[in-house]
Amino acid sequence: GNLRADLLVMLGGVRRAIAGGDGPVMRAFISEKARHPELNKEYQEAFVEERKAHLRSIMAAGVERGDLPANTDVDLAAEIGPALLYHRLMVSGAKPDEDLPRRIVEHLLGPAEPE
What we know:
- The protein is built from 5 helices and no strands.
- It is mainly α.
- Helix 4 (74-92) runs antiparallel to helix 5 (100-109).
- The longest helix is centred in the middle third of the chain and has 27 residues, at 39-65.
- The radius of gyration is 15 Å and the shape is globular.
């Protein structure tokens, strides 16, 4: 029910998976799917579609509550955070820093209101 909190939880989970033991496996699988296109379907089903659908529903709920403008491209918005996290993994091979999910969310929604 809170767009900022929901995004932080979801992107934090993706970051932890990439930064943990799954990161090297995911990097290797992504590389191999480029060489073996038949693996793409498996990759999409195993790693991408469920997470993407969940993020779409989070974004759509944010639009319905008025947390995001009505004309928000929900599909694109749902891809931004994971794309940045995966980009860091694939391009630099580095673990995404712990602060990256918060920075992504603040870029999308603006700074958090002080408590």
